[in-house]
Amino acid sequence: MKDSGLSKCRKISLDPIVDDIVAKEKIKEKPSHADYILVCKDVLFIVEEANKPKTEDIEQIDKTKDLIERYRDYFIQIIGSNIPRKIKGIVHGRFDPMVYRLALSKGYVCAGCEQELASKILR
Predict the structure, then answer these.
(1) Is the separation of the CB atoms in 24 and 91 below 8 Å?
(2) Tens of pLDDT along 72-104?
(3) Which of 17, 21, 37, 40 is nearest to 29 (CA)?
């Protein structure tokens, strides 16, 4: 199987990070967040997986971006270096015109398959 190029990126699940933040900061309710981040050289991608994308998926990316900014020190420990200046959002799922327009308006992108995801990340 051909390498999509994503092997050069570091995939980090957000669940354990958010669980750690909730425990250490004594937050009563676990904040909603995207599924994972990809650290690719000087860009951090926030990825929300969606079988059928909805506008809430864009909100998940926004909330994750806010979490990264608010708890920067936690994320620096996980990533192992400074957080890349460029933070981009990606909804990974089937094409939906409304979600696509909303994503573009926020500077995010949509990707339908793994190869399209790789091409959007590696350009």
Answers:
(1) no
(2) 888 888 887 777 778 888 888 887 888 889 998
(3) 21
d(CA 97, CA 79): 33
DSSP labels, 49-110:
EESS--HHHHHHHHHHHHHHHHTHHHHHHHHTSPPPSEEEEEEEES--HHHHHHHHHTT-EE
Domain 6-122, CATH class in plain words: alpha beta
pTM above 0.85, yes or no: yes
Secondary structure of residue 9 in the 3-state scheme: coil
Residue that is written with structure tokens 């192992």 in the block: 80
User: What is the residue extent of each domain of the chain?
Assistant: 6-122
* Local structure of residue 12 (DSSP, 8 states): E
